[in-house]
Amino acid sequence: MQLFSQRDEQHQRVMRECFESLWQHSADFMFVMAVEPNGEFTLYDNNPASRKVMGLPMDTCVDHFNIRDLWDDEIVEGLYASYQQAIDAHKPVSFEQYATRGEDNAIFANTLLVPIYDKDDNPIFVCGVSRDISDRKAMEQMTLDANEKLQEYSQALENINKNLDDKVRERTCELEQTAQELEAALETKSSFVARMSHEIRTPINAVLGFCNLLNKTSLDDMQRDYIAKILDSGEVLLRQVNDILDFSKLEADSVSIENIEFELEPTIHQAININSLNADTKDLEIVLSLDSSVPQKLIGDPVRIKQILINLVNNAVKFTDSGYVSVNISAKPTGNCDKVLLEIDVQDTGIGITQEQQQRLFHSFSQADDSITRRFGGSGLGLVISRKYAQLMGGELSCKSTPGEGSCFHVSLPLGLVQNQSDSERHGSGDGFRVLVVDDLPISRQVLKTMLGELGYQVEVATDGYEAVEYVNQAFDIRQPFDVILLDWKMPRMDGIETSEQIHSRFQEQTPPILMISAYERQKMQAYCNDGLISSFIEKPVSPSSLFDAVESLLSRHLRMTKNTDPKVKQKDLSAYRLLLVEDNPINQQVAQGYLEDTHIHVDIANNGEQAIEFLSKNDVDIVLMDIQMPYMDGLTATQKLRQELGFDKPIIAMTAHVSDSAISECLHSGMDAHVGKPIDSVELFSVLLRYLASDNDLSHFKDHQEKGPLTHPQLCEALSQIQELNLQEAMSRIGGRNELYFSLLETFYSQYRHRHFIEQLQTATPEELRNFVHALKSNAAYIGAYELVNRCLELESELLDGEVQPQGLTLFESLEKLLVKLDPLLEHYLTEQSINSVNAFKQHLSQLEGQLRTADFAFEKTLKKLTSFVTRRDDLNRLQQIQNAVEEIELETAAKLVAQWRSAID
Q: Torsions phi, psi of 644, nearest 5?
């Protein structure tokens, strides 16, 4: 309790010091007016800037100062009316007004008044802050004057006699000069808006940051309510400032459209995820339908496309109280073979609007009518900005709506096609697998059924939990059980969890894998996974690729668990044969070589498909082991080139983690002869090799592969067996009891990850780099028996397409760190590499500091103090001082950029 008390005191002290500093040094006029019993208002206190503008000496005691002594009654009564307006509104009030500086020197001010009440809801103070915006008003007036002048000359030009050529030229010159002045004025206005937007955002971020800090202190319910309202209002204000800045850029034609290659699915998911929280609070479901005609990769501006989607989905959620919001993506061919027309429909079941109201939708600072602005808020710029972006990309944005039924916004965008792209990652074949979809929302059921059908699965649908249990029961009765059950969580009558419990209680270990689909509470879903109630989960909205990956991952795990293999495998002398191993992962290379060592077969290694083709064009081998997923050239492409271009006719064996019928069929279709799953199983590997390299007459020469050698490193073995995250017995069994090979694999794994370099690297990794990292980690962890880590990898692989995954927040990296911490004391003396040095720790602190500055997390002060213990060089001291100076000026964005530059210099 003492510790918490100290923390509260520290927070209060920090807040008090911050507000005292702002009060003393702010250029804005801050004041507190006391509400007197007689209805009058007296000046309770004001900051130096306010005293200066009022003409009061700095040492004046203003406690309950009567402002009637300073200004005449007309001015005072006007001020009293504004104070009373804030009190009557029971909320902060903002307005613009003329004010008096000193002796009758008028200025224009933007004022915010906040009423304060006692516990009996009686007003006691009115707090205010005013900002001098006279220069901005003068600039606006200058623009108006320029417009008036332009209109005058335009009218004059129309009245000039056509025969008076000299007069026309004279007036034309004047008009051109005026136009230039107007253009300069507009440019000045745009520059001013951009600068002011930045100036406004900085104090807003500070206000929101301090409110969040204040929210962590001891507050009563009313104070927490006020803080929540301030935070909500601040977020709304920040969004409106951003809209105004975007509109200003568009108005000034300073927006450029990019044309770069990008993946569409992550862009869509990022836009939807930003609005998912608002949808969750209203119990709305966002349904994504991505047509199979849509290419995986396109050429265009992903940032602007995402912004259009964010605005449209945000509008749909805002104006829908019940039902759903659907996002439908499709593509149509154009006359140009290098282009495709991307079509986006965002449909809702909201309030809808009339035809007359639709005519005003795309006008600046306009909504359907004033009542909508009052009820839902907003600046009316979102649709205007979205339409202008669509038009800049050569497309269009339109609307269809019916009052009381909902609206549909349609976007069409011509985008470039990426040539020779493969759709294998999105489209698969689930032939032979039966899937049951359980969802109470008809449109969600239909979308899932269509997706799975296009992926090749046999699909049945159930409308609720009771119907699902009945369908599963019938499937067992006719001996055609479902291979996977897709189960929605939030359903009426019987929800997904209750349905899963019913199925488990009836069918016990025969229960098919259950994939829970939900837009809610990821942590609860993970807990149900850990309890075995569900096999895995996937978050809504679901895309075809994420759905296919999740289902395939479940089927792959289920097949591995139920696979029945002979624990004994015979092995013969294969020294007369030569094998080419095509594999980019060093640990997979090490495992395969370890398995093949006792066979004495000659092994050559190629790191990718290109190297394999080059090697085989000059050398003869008897058999090829070919990985599928490799850089530069994958295994499927390499096999096709070997068969078609080189005429290679020796056996090619696929090695891949995908063990579904569709994956195996794809391998065979490319020209491969057989398939070995990953992680590599010695039983399966030797069986396939013997099928193609040995005759039946050779079987008598085999020896027992499962003979276990003497245990090496007995103390280490005992310690490793106590690590909960490692299944040592299972891992040893998978590699045929080869102790030395296991320790070699373990040391290689530890050497690769012990320094935690991946933590920093993955913070800036592209989605493709992150996928490659997880793919490699999955295989590596399987070889050492870290099966919990393997499961985390499988889950993350199915989630990566959402586009919002941050490596430092994932349970995968927590699991990896948990394992490494337990391996550190055991394996440190077996390795010659140095332990994590101060440079790596320094980099981590820099990375942490940059993130804190960009999110206005005031814990950056502690991180800055930690960095001082690392810095000794003059250049580094100068960099640190620049960062501290920026922080003191509350220029957090500038400070973050300085940290990023420092990190780049170290790398």
A: -85, -40
At residue 369, what are phi and psi to the nearest 5 degrees?
-160, 175
Q: Looking at this protein, which amino acid is placed at residue 643?
A: R
The pLDDT tens digits of the residues spanning 23-37 come to 888 888 899 999 998
The domain made up of 434-562 has a fold known as Rossmann fold (3.40.50)
Q: What is the DSSP letter of 329?
A: E
The pLDDT of residue 380 is: 58
Of the ranges 351-365, 459-473, 769-783, which is most confident? Answer: 459-473
- Residue 517 main-chain phi, psi, to 5 deg: -115, 120
CB 450 within 8 A of CB 423: no
Enumerate residues 6+ apart whose C-beta is below 8 A from 577.
601, 602, 622, 623, 693
The one-letter code for the residue type at 488 is D
Q: Which residue has the tokens 């070995």?
A: 676
Could you tell me which of 743, 750, 719 has the C-alpha nearest to residue 816?
Answer: 750
Residue 50 C-alpha from the chain's centroid? 44
- Token readout for 21 is 């500093």
The helix/strand/coil state of 462 is: strand
Residues 6+ apart with CB under 8 A from 143: 182, 185, 186, 189
Separation in Å, CA 56 to CA 61, 62, 67, 495, 896: 10, 9, 11, 68, 40
Instruction: Read off the pLDDT of residues 231-260 as tens digits, 9 standing for 90 and up.
Output: 766 766 776 676 666 666 666 666 678 888
State the Cα–Cα distance between residues 678 and 783, nearest whole angstrom. Answer: 10
Distance in angstroms (rounded) separating the CA atoms of residues 92 and 85: 10
Q: 661-679 burial string, b = 16+ CB within 10 Å, else e?
A: ebbbebbeebbbbbbbbbb
Residue 582, phi then psi, degrees to nearest 5:
-105, 105
834 phi and psi angles, rounded to 5 deg: -75, 155
For residue 806, what are the CA distances in angstroms to 207, 770, 811?
27, 10, 11
Give me the amino acid identity at 384: V
Tell whether pTM > 0.90.
no
CATH number of 260-417: 3.30.565.10
Output b/e per residue, 73-105; b: 16+ Cβ within 10 A.
Answer: eebbeebbeebbebbeeeebbeeeeebbbeeee
Least confident range from 10-19, 457-466, 845-854: namely 845-854
Q: How many C-beta neighbours within 10 Å does residue 822 have?
A: 16
Structure tokens at 753: 């990850």
Q: What is d(CA 829, CA 819) in angstroms, rounded to the nearest whole number?
A: 17
Helix axes 442-454, 544-562, angle to 10 degrees: 70
Structure tokens at 646: 């080189």
Among 870, 878, 868, residue whose Cα is nearest residue 842 = 870
Q: Three-state secondary structure along 527-540?
A: HHHHCCCCCEEEEC
The continuous run of DSSP H or E covering 98 comes out as strand 93-101
| Span 570-707 CATH architecture | 3-Layer(aba) Sandwich (3.40)
Q: What distance, in Å, lies between the first and last C-alpha atoms of the chain?
A: 44
Greater model confidence, 60 or 446: 446
Q: Does domain 136-251 have CATH number 2.60.40.420?
A: no
Q: Topology of 2-132 in CATH?
A: Beta-Lactamase (3.30.450)
| DSSP at 828 | G
Q: How confident is the model at residue 162 (pLDDT cuts 50, 70, 90)?
A: low
Please check whether residue 858 is in contact with residue 216, taking contact to mean a CB–CB distance below 8 angstroms. Answer: no
Q: How many CB atoms lie within 10 A of CB 72?
A: 10
